[in-house]
Amino acid sequence: MPFPAIWMNGRITDPRDARVSVFDHGLLYGDGIFEGIRFYAKRAFRMREHMDRLVWSARCLELALPYSADALTRAAESVVEATGEADGYLRLLVTRGEGDLGLDPRSCKRPTVVIAAAALRFFEGAETSGVKIVVASTRQAPPDVVDARIKSLNYLNRLLARLEAIRAGADEAIMLNREGRIAEGTSDNVFLVRDGVLFTPPAADGALEGVTRAVVLELAASLGIATRIESLGAYDLRACEEAFLVGTGAGLVPVRSVDGLALPACPGPLFKRVNDAFESLVRSDVPANERRSATE
Asked: What's the domain range around 268?
């Protein structure tokens, strides 16, 4: 995909000049973190929540961010402006930086920070047609191995699960934890509907605490839709009335079939209500401090 604008280590740079050392520990060992951020009408959506999660991930990896959250927010705004596009996707990544061969991170003197913008849609056209999903044999790592709430650069188990989906002719794979409970998709959170109630797995079962997931829960509450965060199994996916995936990259995407079994509705009525509210929100959502300044 083309990157019309890249901010790297403090300045906007030509994409052809954006280079990472072969000794960067992000490349060598997947030692780093990232955030995917959508922008609409040249405004990053839920930037504060993304920055909070980046800070928490960095803290868990003992990775010292070389820029403040405010500085990174301003840098992201400059990238959005430089793209010349109203809507798009930002990838903000922080690696441990250049260092010696070997896992010891103390040789890395300064992290590498990159913010790149691109046009991106994970499941093009799926908003109406839906996606086919399979339940993968590749399991989500338990939190005592790698907590899914750390948004790290190492996506190997997710890649293996996605390869399963590709071999099965599906669009996405759903990963279970070692107890057989639903964790999440390879790049999205899972929601399903049963008896008019919206269900999603808890973070304790291996789900990322997704920003879009939180938005969907907020919207459901505002629409009077009952929600439950509880453990779910593959049975629940196959027996539900409707299901959908949510994520920054994916947006909101209805599920057409699970392991080849067509679901009763795609897109279902509850999905349509939530999706309409989401589309309205992303075009009107303004941080509270911006709302205040506009009225002062």
From this structure: 126-282
Q: In the listed set 118, 142, 170, which residue is the last one of a domain according to the structure?
A: 118
| Residue where a domain stops, chosen among 91, 118, 145 | 118
Active site residue 151: yes
pLDDT in tens, 16-66: 899 999 999 999 999 999 999 999 999 999 999 999 999 999 999 999 999
| Co-location of 27 and 132 in the same domain | no
Same domain, 109 and 212: no
The alpha-carbon radius of gyration of the chain (Å, integer) is 19
- This prediction has a pTM of 0.91
Measured over the CA atoms of residue 167, residue 120, residue 278 and residue 154, the dihedral's sign is positive
Among candidate residues 42, 109, 132, 151, the one labeled active-site is 151
Number of domains in the chain: 2
Q: Which of 93, 98, 99, 91 is nearest to 113 (CA)?
A: 93
Q: For 134-171, how does the pLDDT look when each residue is reduced to its tens digit (9 = 90+)? A: 999 999 999 889 899 999 999 999 999 999 999 999 99
